Amino acid sequence: MKTVRPPMIIMILLIFTAIGIVAFYNFSNSNGKSVYKVVIDPGHGGKDHGATGASGQFEKDFTLKLSRKVEKLAQEEPRLQVHLTRTDDRFISSVDRARPKFANDLGADLFISIHGNTFANPDVSGTETYYYHWNSRSLAKVMHKHVVQGSGFQNRGVKKENYFVLKDTKMPAVLIEMGYLTHPKEEKEMLTEEYQNRMAVSIVDGIKEYLKLD
Ligand SMILES: [Zn+2]
């Protein structure tokens, strides 16, 4: 008895349909921006401790913890694809500009560098957001608004500064100084889970507002 096989034409149509679906999906992701690549950059790392807080703890640990919370929260938003410049306590050289290169090579849509501030005078407190290129200014304003609202810390404003992570990145890029780790009360709050969870929400909300994802 002859085996019944589906006609060749149906097989070919099925294969082309499958190729078409995959091609359309890729096209809508890359050109239609149904998914945005966001680089979160935890400041410092490894032998570069960053600021030493009032309690003696290092900025590099604060920035990593907060960045990981942002990454985790952003996973709930299917249109955000978050990439961290470091996921552990490693040193990233500023000489070879690895942080902006990471974002440029990835073709990232946004770059957000997370820091905690330091100053000789322990009374100084508050949040500052930096940008360098003109096309990063609106991102800086949106992110700053959300972070200041979320923390309730003093608003020290949005400022232009020639930081290499902001200068060498090709996409809108900001550096957020979340608060002063050298201010004992502010540091104490910044090191709490509650503050960091709240700030992760503020940062993701800022990203979503800027990208008009809501
Ligand atoms: Zn820093």
From TrEMBL:
It comes from the Bacteria. One of its GO terms (cellular component) is outer membrane-bounded periplasmic space. Keywords: Hydrolase, Membrane, Transmembrane, Transmembrane helix. GO terms for molecular function: N-acetylmuramoyl-L-alanine amidase activity. Residues 100-208 form the MurNAc-LAA domain. SMART domains: Ami_3. GO terms for biological process: peptidoglycan catabolic process. The chain crosses the membrane at residues 6-27. Pfam families: Amidase_3. InterPro entries: MurNAc-LAA_cat (IPR002508), N-acetylmuramoyl_amidase_3 (IPR050695). PANTHER family: N-ACETYLMURAMOYL-L-ALANINE AMIDASE (PTHR30404), N-ACETYLMURAMOYL-L-ALANINE AMIDASE AMIC (PTHR30404:SF0). This is N-acetylmuramoyl-L-alanine amidase. It comes from Kroppenstedtia eburnea.
